[in-house]
């Protein structure tokens, strides 16, 4: 049985990958697998693939020797059982693989046995170190010679008075340990200032905080007596006019492949591949203990491996179709994440409506959307990624941030870098910035990007009353000029158009990217984080498609120096006019935590919309039937 080239790796394939590497002599007792991914074929090969064609299935592994720190990448042909390539990686030049789950426990053990750290903890009044939780965090890179090439984590601490208490309410602040996980020792302890650990509980299920649970919410039941409108064949989904494939990557998490829309008798491609390529959470506290706090949750922690196993009625509501995900554990064996991806339909109010004054007719059609989502937990924060497909051809991504604010002590004199959440407890200012990688394919691979914005027109002979306004359209011709920022005051949008196809009116068919236009990276342009997260300094980048250009901040992000990723791609300054192009869109949240965000943060949302512009000849939802109420009248919202 042949399979599609983009089918996610199965448990059997992950085991075969390990066996091939073992037989080739590439594995030792001290070898770990920070990352195992499907080696996706080039776009051209996938587009040429036909059902039944043979597929050379390949897996790409990042290997680390936890005794020596040696790094290797290896590509295995799962079809032939051969190692296709093996490459040694210099961590000084390229950075480190993602943080591994077993390193969390290791770092806590190392730190709790360090004499300098123990003295600092005892000086703060903590005699029982088993009640101090050590929180290992990615180290970043700051040009310190002694740290170059080391595999490091930096560790902050929290008090936990009992095993079931949430420790985030009790930061032991002013103290951080720098840990080498290969040498298994503390390199340095920074003891800057003693703060009293806040005492108030942060357990959001504590009845003393919540009071009695309300009993006023009546049940909501969502039913589809005839079943859902979508059809699933393996990982291929058909819903209304949409067709696409669901993928899952241990680094990016949910991936949507080959999104197309059926228009009459034509299957029209829109997006070849859509994913969250990277995200960075950068903190604004410049203190000696916290200046280094910035986290790349995809490249440093592997979003996909942290996916939740979703629960019906809690995470998803309605007629649900779940997809499991299989990821490789650090020993190279598979782990199945049950219900990692959720798919369902939602009513979304009015699609279109008109009551006509002349004919007296009244028509209403209801909008519906298909929701494909997954949720991840990254330490204290939780993120939901919701892809929406609408009946009218619109695509939308909504990211939901919730969980627990990463806390610090709040100084008596106040702070310019944080807000007080509870007595003595602070929420540092920070940003959550996401980079969506949108490998576009609007009616084919010959695409270009026009920057379109509203334009005022001054009073003149042509505009004597001053009421006129128009729009400006600027073609982005090369990569160097395609690093752009949003401008909400001008309604700036970016239209991805096909340079070879037009609609019946002669207009180029296209899709418009509508950004929310929230702040990009607020760190100083000369800072380390601005160098490492350069992708987050613009709302939009456009590059020429290349199969090896996958990640906004580069291949190995952990402890990388920066300069890799999108800026390096764009430096080639290739033409993007009428080419096979990729859009990289930065969006996010700038968070000044409120008392209402404690002890758990209500969902905050951000995202973007892709909307058809001249892609269709007319409204593509004229054939949506009216929904009838019991009185046989069109329902209205």
Automatic annotation (TrEMBL):
The AGAO-like N2 domain extends over 11-86
Stored InterPro entries: AGAO-like_N2, Cu_Am_Ox_Cu-bd, Cu_Am_ox_TPQ-bd, Cu_amine_oxidase, Cu_amine_oxidase_C, Cu_amine_oxidase_C_sf, Cu_amine_oxidase_N-reg, Cu_amine_oxidase_N3
Nucleotidyltransferase among the record's keywords? no
Q: Give the note describing cofactor binding and stoichiometry.
A: Contains 1 topaquinone per subunit.
Q: What is its EC number?
A: 1.4.3.-
Q: Does the keyword Metal-binding apply?
A: yes
Cofactor(s) recorded for this entry are: Mn(2+); Zn(2+); Cu cation
PROSITE patterns listed in its UniProt record: COPPER_AMINE_OXID_1, COPPER_AMINE_OXID_2
Q: Which residues form the Copper amine oxidase N3-terminal domain?
A: 97-193
Give me the reactions it catalyses.
a primary methyl amine + O2 + H2O = an aldehyde + H2O2 + NH4(+)
| Domain Copper amine oxidase catalytic per the UniProt entry, residue ranges | 220-622
PTM statement from Swiss-Prot or TrEMBL: Topaquinone (TPQ) is generated by copper-dependent autoxidation of a specific tyrosyl residue.
Q: Which keywords, in A-to-Z order, does the entry hold?
A: Copper, Manganese, Metal-binding, Oxidoreductase, TPQ
Quaternary structure note? Homodimer.
Annotated family: Belongs to the copper/topaquinone oxidase family.
Q: What is this protein called?
A: Amine oxidase
Species source reads Saccharopolyspora oryzae
């Amino acid at each position: 049985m042949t399979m599609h080239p983009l089918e996610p790796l199965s448990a059997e394939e992950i085991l075969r990958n390990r066996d091939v590497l073992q037989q080739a002599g590439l594995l030792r007792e001290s070898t770990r697998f920070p990352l195992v991914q499907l080696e996706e074929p080039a776009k051209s090969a996938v587009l040429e693939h036909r059902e039944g064609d043979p597929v050379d299935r390949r897996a790409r592994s990042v290997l680390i020797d936890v005794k020596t720190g040696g790094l290797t990448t290896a590509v295995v042909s799962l079809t032939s059982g051969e190692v296709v390539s093996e490459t040694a990686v210099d961590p000084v030049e390229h950075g480190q693989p993602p943080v591994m789950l077993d390193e969390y426990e290791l770092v806590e053990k190392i730190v709790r046995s360090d004499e300098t750290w123990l003295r600092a903890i005892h000086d703060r009044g903590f005699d029982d170190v088993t009640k101090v939780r050590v929180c290992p965090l990615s180290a970043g890179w700051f040009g310190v010679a002694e740290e170059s090439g080391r595999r490091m984590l930096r560790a902050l601490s929290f008090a936990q008075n009992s095993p079931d208490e949430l420790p985030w309410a009790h930061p032991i602040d002013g103290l951080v340990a720098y840990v080498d996980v290969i040498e298994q020792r503390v390199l340095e302890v920074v003891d800057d200032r003693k703060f009293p650990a806040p005492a108030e509980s942060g357990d959001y299920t504590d009845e003393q905080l919540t009071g009695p649970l309300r009993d006023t919410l009546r049940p909501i039941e969502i039913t589809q007596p005839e079943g859902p409108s979508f059809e699933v064949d393996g990982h291929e989904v058909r819903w209304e006019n949409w067709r696409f494939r669901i993928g899952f990557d241990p680094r990016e998490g949910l991936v949507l492949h080959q999104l197309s829309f059926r228009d009459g008798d034509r299957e029209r491609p829109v997006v070849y591949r859509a994913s969250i390529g990277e995200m960075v959470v950068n903190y604004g506290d410049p203190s000696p203990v916290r200046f280094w706090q910035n986290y790349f949750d995809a490249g440093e922690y592997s979003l996909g491996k942290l996916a939740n196993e979703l629960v019906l009625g809690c995470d998803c509501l309605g007629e649900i179709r779940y997809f499991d995900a299989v990821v490789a554990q650090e020993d190279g064996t598979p782990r199945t994440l049950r219900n990692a991806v959720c798919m369902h339909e939602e009513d979304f109010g009015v699609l279109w409506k008109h009551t006509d004054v002349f004919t007296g007719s009244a028509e209403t059609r209801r909008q519906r959307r298909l929701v494909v989502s997954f949720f991840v937990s990254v330490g204290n924060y939780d993120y939901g990624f919701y892809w929406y497909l609408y009946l009218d051809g619109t695509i939308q991504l909504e990211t939901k941030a919730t969980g627990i604010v990463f806390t610090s002590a709040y100084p008596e004199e106040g702070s310019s870098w944080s807000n007080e959440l509870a007595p003595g407890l602070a929420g540092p200012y920070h940003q959550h910035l996401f980079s969506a990688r949108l490998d576009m394919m609007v009616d084919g691979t010959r695409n270009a990007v026009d920057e379109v914005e509203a334009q005022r027109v001054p009073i003149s002979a042509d505009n004597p009353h001053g009421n006129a306004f128009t729009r400006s359209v600027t073609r982005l011709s090369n990569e160097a000029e395609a690093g752009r920022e949003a401008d909400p005051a001008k309604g700036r949008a970016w239209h991805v158009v096909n340079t070879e196809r037009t609609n019946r009116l002669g207009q180029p068919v296209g899709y418009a990217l509508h950004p929310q236009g929230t702040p990009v990276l607020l760190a100083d342009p000369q800072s380390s984080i601005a160098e490492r997260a350069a992708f987050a300094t613009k709302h939009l980048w456009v590059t020429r498609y290349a199969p090896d250009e996958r990640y906004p901040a580069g291949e190995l992000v952990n402890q990388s120096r920066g300069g890799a990723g999108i800026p390096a791609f764009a430096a080639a300054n290739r033409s993007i006019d009428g080419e096979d192009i990729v859009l990289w869109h930065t969006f996010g949240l700038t968070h000044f935590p409120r008392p209402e965000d404690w002890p758990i943060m209500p969902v905050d949302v951000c995202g973007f919309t892709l909307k058809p512009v001249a892609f269709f000849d007319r409204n593509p939802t004229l054939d949506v039937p009216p929904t009838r109420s019991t009185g046989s009248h069109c329902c209205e919202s």
